[in-house]
Structure formats: structure tokens, C-alpha cells
UniProtKB/TrEMBL annotation:
InterPro entries assigned: DUF6095
Organism in which the protein naturally occurs: Maribacter cobaltidurans
Domain of life: Bacteria
Lineage: Bacteria, Pseudomonadati, Bacteroidota, Flavobacteriia, Flavobacteriales
Protein name: Uncharacterized protein
Length: 79
């Protein structure tokens, strides 16, 4: 059983993107709460919450891809 290097790189890229989102989402949410009187309060808050939820989802998917690459998951298609 070998490690699928292409899948591993894909998973690492996904986790790198997750780390970016994990820093970006709280900053956007903080900016929204800092400017509660601004007309764009709600849109910025919603965007921040969507980014936070996607960061969590992306983290789980990245870990799942890496585990599948290491242990040969069933979702991998062989030609």
C-alpha cells in the first residue's frame, strides 16, 4: 500500500487554504462587530460567518483527503 502523492498534495493545499480562512474569518467577523452602526454590518457579518463555516468544512475535507491518500480510501478511483 503506497501513498498517493497527488492526493496528498491536494490535501495539503486544502489545509493551507483552511489556515488562511481560519485567520481571515475571525478578522472579518471582528470588523463587522466593530462597525455595528454601519449599513454594511449585516452583509459583512454574514460573509464572516460563511467564511468561518467553510473553514471548518474545508479543514475536515483536507484531513479526509490526506487520510485517504495515506491509507488508500474507498473514494479513490483506479483506472
Amino acid at each position: 500500500m503506497r501513498t498517493d502523492k497527488e492526493m496528498m498534495v491536494k490535501g495539503i493545499k486544502k489545509l493551507a487554504f483552511t489556515i488562511l480562512l481560519m485567520f481571515l474569518a475571525p478578522v472579518v467577523i471582528w470588523q463587522a462587530f466593530k462597525n455595528e452602526g454601519h449599513p454594511f454590518y449585516w452583509p459583512v457579518l454574514v460573509i464572516g460567518l460563511i467564511l468561518a463555516i467553510y473553514a471548518i468544512y474545508s479543514g475536515f475535507k483536507g484531513i479526509q483527503i490526506i487520510v485517504d491518500a495515506l491509507f488508500g480510501g474507498n473514494s479513490r478511483k483506479r483506472d
